[in-house]
Amino acid sequence: MSDLVEDTIQIVQLKQMLNAANYIVAFTGAGISAESGIPTFRGVGGLWSKYDPEKAVSIDYFRIDPTYYWKFFRDVRHDLMINAQPNAAHSALAELERGGRLRAVITQNIDGLHQRAGSKTVFELHGNTRRFYCVRCRKPFTIEQAWEMLQTKLPPECDKCGGVLRPDVVLFGEYLPEDVVQAAQREAAACDLMLVVGSSLVVYPANNIPYQAKYNGAKLVIINIDPTPLDGLADLVINSAAGEILKQAVME
Ligand code: NAD
User: Fold this and answer.
1) pLDDT tens across 95-129, in order?
2) Residue 242 Cβ < 6 Å to ligand 1
């Protein structure tokens, strides 16, 4: 069977499953933002060609040398996050939510693109790299404020207490926010269709969420270019780029 015919059959199946569901929850990863120009961790793309991830986004290293993170932010992450726009896959999920059947997006992403596409109920398991706060007094800062402060001070320091600013993301070595995890678990228990989009499903403990949904009786759909460890459990697996698939399944 040609890829095109297979995609068409799978899009029809996906449409049927979306139409039959009453409580859809999406679980998204870096792959949904790849078509917005933000490289994934795994696969080609070179996000880590210049910066060592063990250092750039690890809490242990941030404590030793916060300037390493801030150089990574200055040289790589800031422009990626400022320039990236939501793509067809983000828009399709927002449209599904407006239609009333998609109740929540649980995301491992830190780019805020779901909200910018119009999604309202978004649970960010790993935080958001457009927000910052002071490690000492917890005063919050926007990405624009942090960027401005970075022009004169590396690492940027809080104007209230002099503490170092850090991103409001879960760094390697940190726990996920308990309230967000609990909300995600509630959604996993409540949904009748879990739609995984653009996640390798290898990052623990976030990858437990789709597993829990399936365990609780939901149908499981995985849209991801590469195979994932949960493919064997899924009711439908589509190994294609998410934008075109979701656009056709939701918007056409
Ligand atoms: P991952 O990098 O482990 O896996 C991404 C998956 O997306 C890959 O399996 C790949 O096959 C697939 N993919 C790539 N392009 C795709 C497309 N157009 N359509 C469908 N699938 C596509 O990502 P992960 O599972 O989210 O785990 C990585 C961790 O890195 C997460 O914790 C996430 O927070 C973080 N991260 C976030 C961003 C972001 O916010 N945009 C970017 C990079 C990494």
Assistant:
1) 999 999 999 999 999 999 999 999 999 999 999 99
2) yes
- CATH number of the domain that 251 lies in? 3.40.50.1220
Q: 200 CB under 6 A from ligand 1?
A: yes
139/196 same-domain check = no
Residue with the bigger pLDDT between 36 and 203: it is: 36
The answer to pTM > 0.85 is yes
> Are both 107 and 226 inside the same structural domain?
yes
Contact (Cβ atoms closer than 8 angstroms) between residue 252 and residue 33: no
149 and 100 together in one domain: no
176 in contact with ligand 1, CB cutoff 6 A: no
Read off the pLDDT of residues 9-61 as tens digits, 9 standing for 90 and up.
Answer: 999 999 999 999 999 999 999 999 999 998 876 555 545 666 787 888 899 99
Distance 24 CA to ligand 1 centre (A): 21
**Claim to verify: residue 119 and residue 214 sit in the same structural domain:** yes
Contacts of 230 (CB under 8 A, 6+ apart): 196, 201, 207, 210, 211, 214, 220, 222
Q: Is 226 exposed, middle or buried (0-12, 13-18, 19+ CB in 10 A)?
A: exposed
Is 126 considered catalytic here? Answer: yes
117 shares a domain with 33 = yes
Selected catalytic residue, list 78, 90, 114, 126: 126
For residue 148, what are the domain limits? Answer: 39-83+133-169
Same-domain pairing of 48 and 68: yes
76 lines ligand 1 (CB under 6 A): no
